[in-house]
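Pilot study result, target chain (532 residues):
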Amino acid sequence: MAQPTCVRAVGYRRVSSLEQTEGHSLDAQTAHIQSFAQFQGWSLVEIYTDAGISAKKGTNRPAFEQMLKDAEKGKFDVVIVDKIDRFYRHLGGLLTTLEHLNSCNVALASVQEKLDFTSPWGKLMLTVLGMLAEIYIDNLRQETKKGSYQRSRKGLWHGIIPYGYCSGLCSNCTDPNGKDYCPNFGKRNLSDGKHLIAHPIEQIAVRLVFEWYATGQHSLSSIAKKLNEYDLTLEDGTTVRLRQKGSSRSNNRGVFNKDTIRSMLVRLMYTGKLAYIGTDDKGNRYPRRKPREVFEGQHPALISQELFDQVAQMRELLARNPIQRKDSRVARIFPLTGILNCSYCGGTMRGISWGGKYYYYRDSQKDDGLECKQETIKAELIENKIVELLRQIVQQARSENVLSTAGDRLQIYVDRYEKIQEMYLAGEISREQYNSEKEFFENNENLLRDKGLYATMALLELLEADLGRWDELSLLNKKRQLRLVLEAVWLRGNSLVAIQPTIAFLPIVTSLSNCGRGGARTPDLMCVIHAL
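Predicted structure:
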């Protein structure tokens, strides 16, 4: 095949979102590429451009990929780049791409380095320059990680400002929810720009999301719908419709959806804290990982830690029982989901419904095509058996006064300390005697507290009260209460064969001589129930 009389050249230019500076701008790269091609006497047929994209290994660069495909088709003879780091910042990727271009009879030329990488000397220099580019990005990654960690330690947010907050630079506000929305737009600055402040309207939407979800009566989709229809009246009497922050370039700006609500519900930042997630060796954030460290933030809290924890608990309770079905009917919550197990095969029992009127628990192993003796059981039947078992445990705990001894001891200490306080205030004993008695009381109180007496007594009283009005509780509250006292329940046929109490409920169960009539504890602290 005859070679073309004129060398056909193409240019490749790239700039990341953080490199829009003189010497790296797309216009500057274009000018350098054009001048170089003209000086060499080459015909510049096209320039491929990737804007706002990194040159790290594994990065998707559409124009770069198209250039390689065109090289395979023989559309040009040489690629011109302004600098090697515009082409690749990873040595392995750089050398692999160069080898691929050579197999297509395509050369690579660099304007700034003034090198022809088809010669032996050029290939050597290419290796050295590629290593330098890779070292640079590794150092940049490490410095970025250190800077991110230090800002988190200081309680300063870094990155895109999350919904609910703004920079406080009101006089020259660029926030998507600023102009024609925020009442502070164009007024004096409320911050130095380094410390976030609560957005006057968005913070209200955040609190509504958490408060609504904590009730257990709303799904993510229904909350999004309520927000999209919510009109807020400002102090001056004007009304604004709540909207998502979005971005100035978004065509669907302002519309809440279930994904935005879900992301808001897990943002610890709303409690006034900063969660440092960290990154791996490649600079990628760890996905779905608990924070490595939590720091006190310098931004205001939009919700309380208590409300955040309530929502977290509610999310766990509703994880397998969505509030809303796809057909818009309210789904039935199964209180034993995640607790009830089959003692034949060890599989979990899954809540199912039939026609929206009949409710059962079914062995999940059968849904996977496996055989098991356990039959599907009516939800009401097994739920009532467990409630009756809990009533027996509470009744026996009360009748045998399992907590009375420790409680009586605690009350003696409290009465004695109160008497000492009265005597000290009346001047009947010295300060030294008072301090000695105070130390005695605190030591004994702490001892009883360490044994979990207070928590156990509170749980027993709560359980007793809820069991007394069990039929009045919602299914969600029933599920919450069962989760407080039971880790797992094992079913064989229509009978309960074992329960595993939670750590909080364990002192009540283990303090009894047995676990109900005809039962006995096993060495692993599970209560075996022969029949009810």
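One observation from the pilot: Confidence is low (pLDDT under 50) at residues 248-252, 513-532. A full batch analysis is planned for the follow-on phase.
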